[in-house]
Specification:
Number of domains: 3
Shape: globular
Number of helices: 13
Strand content: 5-15%
Order of helices and strands: HHHHHHEHEHEHEEHEHEEHH
Structural class: alpha/beta
Length: 322
């Protein structure tokens, strides 16, 4: 009798485990089918050739199994417009595959009465910034995002917007005036588009600045460990975002103990930020060199007044884009 019940128990356990495995395989197959139209095999093979050679997997299978796992050092992007690290760690944290999470976002129920928010795209350098902004408004669900692309620079709607069109996004080749992303009205007037800077966040990250008699609000994120940026720092794609890490030695840096690591991390997250204030050149268009403590030591000044004078001459806030 005991043998009989033991046999039944293990048979049920074996059957249940097989059912779970089959369900998991079916889910993976469905996810693979979902991302295939947007997965750039050539991009993946060219950029992650060594990874594919080590595993022997196809490009899409490697991404499904390994590409989105781990941290910024091991993340692999499925195409040229989706940044796994920014999506998973800085924008919309999720436990599973972030690309699948993006493609499974529900349709927004915009009506004819829903207010539109215009997002201008002048050229390809603004494409990623406009994409995360459009996605941010899609999730906010207070205004319908309308992306206006320059017809002189784009001959078709870029792939990054295609999955979002079925969810309610409007994308048009209508930016004939070639207005910059930073001329979009929501940047000047966030409140009328339902943008909340986050009342529960520390007030010192929400900074006002006046340019041409217009007051802009932006989020300044210090990347130092005592600010908990590495584990808690989040982007708000609906507002201007700055990073700041300049004044201390790299042994205070959680994401890079060497100059190479520091540059690699900063380049990885750079597309999501409007300006990156840094004391070390990282080679991105949005970097702004702000000399800090290390520069004072390097130049060998004997009094702080002379050092501060030199630092002020080298400062470049780069706010002209607004």
């Amino acid at each position: 009798m005991i043998k009989y019940f033991c046999s039944i128990f293990f048979l049920i356990l074996f059957t249940s485990n097989n059912a779970i495995i089959l369900a998991s395989n079916d889910a993976n197959a469905d996810d693979k089918k979902l991302i295939e139209p947007y997965f750039d095999e050539r991009f993946y093979k060219d950029k992650y050739k060594e990874d594919l050679e080590k595993t022997g997997l196809s490009a899409i299978d490697h991404f499904m199994q390994y590409g989105w796992q781990g941290d910024w050092k091991t993340h692999r992007d499925p195409n040229g417009w989706f940044n796994v690290t920014l999506y998973k760690d800085r924008l919309w944290p999720c436990t599973g595959n972030p690309f699948v999470d993006f493609l499974k976002q529900p349709k927004s129920d915009f009506s004819d009465l829903t207010k539109n928010v215009d997002i201008f795209v002048k050229d390809s350098s603004e494409l990623f910034r406009a994409w995360i902004t459009a996605e941010g408004f899609m999730r906010l669900k207070k205004c319908r995002p309308v992306v206006h692309l320059s017809p002189a620079r784009f001959h078709k709607i870029p792939d990054c917007f295609v999955p979002m069109i079925n969810r309610g996004l409007v994308a048009q080749l209508s930016n004939t005036a070639e207005l910059s992303f930073y001329k979009s009205d929501f940047i000047k007037n966030p409140a009328i588009y339902g943008i909340d800077f986050g009342k529960d966040e520390p007030p010192n990250v929400h900074m006002p600045v006046v340019i041409n008699n217009v007051t802009y609000r932006y989020i300044k994120q210090d990347l130092y460990p005592w600010k908990n940026y590495y584990t808690q720092g989040r982007l708000n794609p609906l507002v201007i975002n700055f990073t700041y890490f300049t004044e201390e030695a790299l042994h205070f840096c959680e994401f890079g103990s060497t100059t190479l690591e520091y540059k690699s991390f900063m380049r990885r997250i750079a597309p999501g930020y409007d300006l990156m204030h840094t004391g070390i050149e990282i080679g991105t268009p949005n970097e702004r060199i702000i000399p800090g403590y290390l520069d004072v030591v390097y130049y060998g000044y004997t009094d702080m007044q002379s050092a501060q004078s030199e630092v002020q001459q080298k400062r470049n806030s780069g706010l002209a884009f607004c």
